[in-house]
Write a structure and sequence with these properties.
Layout lengths: L2 E5 L9 E14 L5 E14 L5 E7 L13 E2 L2 E2 L2
Antiparallel strand pairs: 1-2, 2-3, 3-4, 5-6
């Protein structure tokens, strides 16, 4: 799955928006390692104010991903555990 879309239906009458839609696009992204990861690359949210033609669109682009890592070990009585 490389895209997820959501649309609202039958919103409560007291909710200020009558239309809400969301879409998230995913793709393979290479980080420092050679193995690609499936990560979000863009997102778009549309909301419309109830009873009007006023809508707001929010578009997000994800980029410059960085991979962080760490290592740890647990020891008991000064001996490393396997």
């Amino acid at each position: 799955m490389l895209r997820i879309e959501q649309q609202s239906r039958n919103m409560p009458k007291l909710f200020p928006f009558d239309v809400t839609e969301t879409a998230i696009d995913y793709d393979s992204v290479r980080l420092a390692a050679t193995q690609p990861y499936v990560l979000p690359v863009s997102s778009e949210v549309l909301t419309c104010i109830r009873g009007t033609s006023i809508c707001m669109r929010n578009r997000i682009e994800f980029r410059n991903y960085r991979k962080f890592g760490s290592e740890s070990s647990i020891t008991f009585d000064g001996k490393p555990q396997e």
